[in-house]
From TrEMBL:
It comes from the Eukaryota. SUPFAM superfamilies: Acyl-CoA N-acyltransferases (Nat). One of its GO terms (molecular function) is beta-N-acetylglucosaminidase activity. This is Uncharacterized protein. GO terms for biological process: glycoprotein metabolic process.
Length: 184
């Protein structure tokens, strides 16, 4: 599912053949390892086609990701994988940006949503997202946040329809991305 929406150059595609878990590790690995109880999967007749992943206590999740999960994944995907590989694994070797404390206080949970391009039923994606938000709320969360690329109009629209708004915080984000938040 993770590879369906990827349009990459041949060098990166070659690395993905050699390391088939790379995209899954990048998109969902930390959630599956550190917060599996808040990971939901959407399936159709062709298999997995969407996911909703979250962390109830984002601050602890991010600390654990940085201190234990990232070192292990960096060992799994060393930068020496080659030119295409270095580009593909850059995410794992870049220092993660700290989420501002005001965001973590107001929106203590982290979410990440994704669907394959073949999913045309927005209702299914919405239901999946609402399952995650309901689970987080039922376990005490009062708000959630996520990071979205400014160029991903489809994701921005989807999150907006779920009630997320752009957070007006100073954040040393990579150019072209923003934090969105929603109270529960």
């Amino acid at each position: 599912m993770c590879r369906e929406s990827l349009d990459c150059d041949p060098k990166v595609a070659e690395i993905l053949v050699a390391h088939p878990d790379l995209l899954g590790d990048r998109l969902l690995g930390s959630f599956l390892s550190l917060s599996p109880e808040y990971t939901f999967v959407l399936e159709d007749e062709d298999g997995p086609c969407g996911y909703a992943a979250g962390a109830l206590h984002a601050e602890g999740f991010l600390q654990q990701r940085d201190s234990s999960w990232l070192p292990a994944i960096r060992h799994k995907y060393p930068p020496e994988l080659g030119t295409g590989g270095a580009e593909a694994v850059l995410f794992f070797h870049a220092e993660p940006l700290a989420v501002p404390q005001p965001v973590l206080r107001r929106f203590p949970s982290l979410v990440q949503l994704g669907t394959a391009p073949r999913v045309l039923d927005v209702g299914a994606s919405r239901s999946l997202a609402l399952c995650l938000l309901s689970a987080l709320r039922a376990n005490g969360s009062r708000g959630v946040f996520c990071q979205v690329s400014d160029t991903d109009r489809q994701q921005l629209s989807f999150y907006s329809k779920l009630g997320f708004v752009a957070l007006p915080v100073a954040w040393g984000s990579s150019p072209g991305s923003q934090l969105l938040g929603r109270l529960l």
